[in-house]
Amino acid sequence: MSTTNETNETNKALDAVLVRRIWQTLEPLHALHYYSPKMFEEFAALGYAVDERWPAYFAMRAAALGTASAELVTSTFYSFSPAMVARYVPRVWSIADPADVLAARLRAVDATLRSALGERVHAPEIAEAAALTRRVAEAADTVGRPLAAAHAALPWADEPHLVLWQAITRLREHRGDGHIAALLAHRLDGVEALVSHSAAGAAPAEVFASRQWSADEWDAARGRLVARGWLNADGTATEAGRSGRDSVEALTDELAARPWESIGAAEAARLADLILPAVLDTIGTGLLPMQSTLGIGMSYPHQG
User: Fold this and answer.
1) Which range, 5-14, 160-169, 194-203, has the best average confidence (pLDDT)?
2) Kind and range of the H or E element at 183?
3) What is the distance of C-alpha 44 from the center of its chain?
4) Which residues are registered as beta bridge partners of 231?
5) Helices then strands (H, E): number in the chain?
6) Are residues 18 and 269 in contact, defined by beta-carbon separation less than 8 angstroms?
7) pTM
8) Which one, 140, 206, 209, 262, has least CB within 10 Å?
9) By the 8 A CB rule, do 144 and 67 touch?
10) Coil/strand/helix, residue 49
11) Which residue stretches of the chain are H helix?
């Protein structure tokens, strides 16, 4: 018979698995608009250059913070090169103010989800999923979580598919704020976070080039991680490095878990099932990249 401590540890592990599963399930519904032609149309109409994704990206993701400085965006986005951020921020606010950016973003999300989901956008499963996810989002404590707090201050839309997206977005920024806390607790700066994540198998280093750290900055971070014992000289992760990344992800999951207690494991699992057809529709658009810097699909802890 298991002891009470063993049972608690098992429940904790199962909770972490569920929290990670839900994040990985919901994330495509949030991320789709970043790659959508509808988003580029909306932001081109505002006056943003759309031959690359970054002007619109920095504007739309930071707009909830107001006319954020480059320093604030660098701090809250964390893994982007400060030099990269400074190329776009605060200039993005000279093109459109944050309120107009937020309105354009929501219009783009609306059009994108209607296109991706078709008639499913009106399905009762979407309304139920929206209600469940909103409950979780409203239960999320935003103290010490600036991006989550900024999104929590925004008004809810009326349509269920938009409420669903807003709730997912608030929760993913809540998780992201917690992830930064976990990285800080493990003494990983922005570029070290990427180098260690790549070495642990999240994605090839080329995928992380989108964050625009220079080769010298990447190599310097790799050298620091070699000195810490997290990487081998060839840049692959050591056992200590894999264990360190496991610890970062475990703490991230733990910090993201509390809002889900508001609906409990059974309803959280039901949410994942309710939303899966819409997620498959989203993936079926072909707009999402095959690999990203988030490491979705990775298993923790690492085995062998």
Assistant:
1) 160-169
2) helix 160-185
3) 24
4) 237
5) 15, 0
6) yes
7) 0.91
8) 206
9) no
10) coil
11) 4-31, 37-46, 54-62, 70-77, 82-88, 92-95, 98-117, 124-138, 146-152, 160-185, 190-199, 205-208, 215-228, 239-257, 264-284
